[in-house]
Design a protein that fits this description.
The chain is mostly helical and 198 residues long. It has one domain (56-196): Tetracycline Repressor, domain 2 (Orthogonal Bundle). Helices cover 79% and strands 0% of the residues. The protein has nine helices and no strands. α2 (35-42) crosses α3 and α4 (56-85) packs antiparallel against α5 (90-103). It is elongated. The protein starts with 9 loop residues before the first helix and ends with a helix. InterPro entries: Homeodomain-like_sf, HTH-type_TetR-like_transc_reg, HTH_TetR, Tet_transcr_reg_TetR-rel_C_sf, TetR_C_31. GO terms for molecular function: DNA-binding transcription factor activity; transcription cis-regulatory region binding. Residues 34-53 bind DNA. Residues 11-71 form the HTH tetR-type domain.
């Protein structure tokens, strides 16, 4: 006899709540986050959200931390792979990163950028954003150093800002083949950065 689905317990319940919070942010914006709305999206009682998160701010912070941790892990994997491609492989690796973002969960990307913008108003989110950006800069700094950049830290900051801008533009105006647009832009930028250091 089949058993009915049971609601998750413990840390699994917390994870479901955070996923629901990210989905609510993606679908309705940061302003829609309430314990009641997230509980409904998670299919759980409100008491479940208030058990794990005492306030809306705590819930938003934990959701943003989850988004950051996932993306950082993905970026570490990508940069490890890019390091094996050699200096000429950096634009391709960055294009792969952006196209994976754009072809993956649009909701995850919208939620992450919505919370990123919310960091302008919330210091607790700002700390996560700074850490997230610092990891990206450090990882790209390493790749750019290997590729011959004479100012890898500055170049890495420029690349991080460019990647964010390209992703936001692509979210706002989706394209059928984003790689066809992104690759030449990244090849030109990385080429200019490395040529400047030669």
């Amino acid at each position: 006899m089949a058993t009915p689905d049971r609601p998750p317990r413990g840390e699994a319940r917390r994870a479901v709540i955070l996923e629901a919070a990210l989905q609510v942010v993606a679908d309705e914006g940061v302003g829609a986050i309430t314990h009641r709305r997230v509980a409904a999206a998670a299919g759980l009682p409100v008491a479940a959200t208030t058990y794990w998160f005492a306030s809306k701010d705590e819930l938003l912070t934990a959701a943003y931390r989850l988004a950051a941790d996932r993306d950082i892990a993905r970026m570490r994997t990508l940069t490890a792979s890019a390091a094996t491609r050699g200096p000429g492989g950096l634009p391709g690796a960055l294009t792969d990163l952006l196209t994976a973002d754009l072809s993956g969960s649009r909701a995850a990307l919208v939620a992450a950028y919505s919370l990123w913008l919310e960091a302008a108003r919330r210091p607790e989110l700002r700390a996560i954003e700074r850490e997230w950006t610092a990891v990206y800069v450090d990882l790209l700094d390493d790749l750019l150093t290997r590729a011959g950049s004479r100012q890898p830290q500055t170049d890495a900051r420029l690349l991080v800002a460019t990647l964010d801008g390209l992703l936001l533009a692509s979210l706002a105006a989706p394209q059928d083949d984003p790689a066809a647009t992104l690759r030449p832009l990244l090849e030109r930028l990385v080429g200019a950065l490395l040529a400047r250091g030669a």
